[in-house]
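Tokens in:
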């Protein structure tokens, strides 16, 4: 590398924002891609990084796969908005694991492939930050439809739930492009990445199963996913027996069986779909039944967050989840989320509250349970 290029790099790295822009341009050059036209002015940090990268790499570029292009586009979006982007974990490979054929909120089919459309072109899907008070970081990202992302905007999970309640009360078909069921699925999806009081999390129906790699910050919801996944494939009766053996008392075993026997016929009534997507929807839709939720809450409220987490860990170690999972300690679960600055890079922004709004009352609900681990689902 020439001395002139080195001096340019050192000058640009003096500013964090310029450094990020420079790195973006550098990685465009690394993969043989030209940055968007609006970033090609001589004063642009991206342009400076791109030109420096071209001088350094020459023709020795790496393959620009669709996930690499998506990775660069997301980093650019974050940079332009001043949002944190946790580059160590959010890699092209990671983004490839987030892809889905259908939106978990609207259930609409999404465009095949992992690349965002060209600048200015319409998109039917986005890689969204599910918690708006966090940055682009592992565990906080999911692929959802553009309609769901626009409706979510900067709402909290309980705001989304209230939207559904408002639709039911008014009899209207939709609000901001989403119907009643979609608003409730959105609320539950957002609740996964929101620390809640155990009692609040225990009263939520599992109307949407968590997408790949999303972190579940509330242990009882992780246990709820596990309980539902017992029915995801054949051999559920054996898995049920193994799970019951982990429960500490006959009373709890009885209560879980009551819940499970209410959930089972609702899943069976879907007709035992053969494809994975419709099996997933059948499991989710079974939670629309009020009796299922009532019996689950009765069981779940006999636990606290620590005991729910311990039970989840034992069941996961026993292979009852039916898919590969990862358990994180509390710091790891939100590593790189920039919660202290509401997801932004700049210091000095208003600090986020240490409490979260309650679902119906809007009053603060302290987490306060000290749960030692959090769950994510790395692979379907």
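Residues out:
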């Amino acid at each position: 590398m020439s001395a002139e290029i080195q001096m340019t790099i050192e000058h640009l790295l003096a500013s964090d924002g310029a450094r990020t822009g420079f790195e973006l341009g550098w990685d465009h050059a690394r993969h043989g891609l030209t940055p968007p036209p609006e970033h090609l002015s001589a004063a642009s940090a991206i342009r400076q990084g791109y030109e420096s990268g071209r001088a350094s790499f020459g023709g020795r570029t790496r393959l620009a796969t669709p996930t690499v292009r998506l990775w660069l586009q997301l980093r650019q979006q974050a940079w332009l908005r001043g949002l944190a982007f946790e580059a160590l974990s959010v890699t092209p490979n990671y983004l490839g694991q987030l892809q889905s054929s259908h939106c978990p909120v609207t259930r609409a089919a999404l465009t095949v492939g992992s690349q965002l459309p060209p600048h200015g072109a319409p998109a039917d899907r986005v890689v969204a930050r599910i918690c708006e008070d966090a940055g682009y970081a592992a565990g906080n990202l999911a692929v959802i439809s553009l309609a769901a992302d626009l409706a979510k905007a900067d709402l909290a999970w309980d705001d989304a739930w209230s939207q559904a309640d408002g639709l039911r009360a008014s009899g209207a078909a939709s609000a901001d492009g989403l119907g009643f069921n979609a608003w409730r699925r959105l609320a539950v999806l957002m609740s996964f990445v929101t620390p809640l009081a155990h009692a609040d999390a225990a009263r939520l129906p599992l109307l949407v199963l968590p997408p790949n790699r999303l972190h579940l910050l509330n242990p009882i919801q992780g246990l709820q996913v596990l309980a539902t996944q017992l029915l995801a494939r054949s051999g559920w009766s054996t898995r049920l027996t193994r799970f019951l053996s982990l429960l500490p008392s006959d009373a709890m075993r009885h209560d879980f069986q009551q819940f499970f026997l209410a959930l089972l016929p609702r899943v069976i009534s879907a007709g035992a779909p053969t494809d994975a997507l419709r099996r997933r929807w059948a499991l989710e839709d079974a939670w629309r039944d009020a009796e299922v939720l009532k019996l689950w809450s009765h069981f779940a409220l006999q636990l606290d967050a620590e005991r729910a987490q311990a039970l989840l860990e034992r069941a996961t170690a026993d292979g009852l989840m039916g898919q590969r999972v990862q358990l994180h300690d509390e710091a790891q679960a939100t590593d790189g989320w920039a919660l202290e600055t509401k997801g932004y890079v700049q210091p000095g922004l208003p600090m986020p509250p240490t409490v979260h709004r309650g679902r119906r009352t809007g009053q603060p609900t302290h987490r306060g349970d000290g749960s030692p681990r959090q769950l994510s689902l790395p692979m379907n």
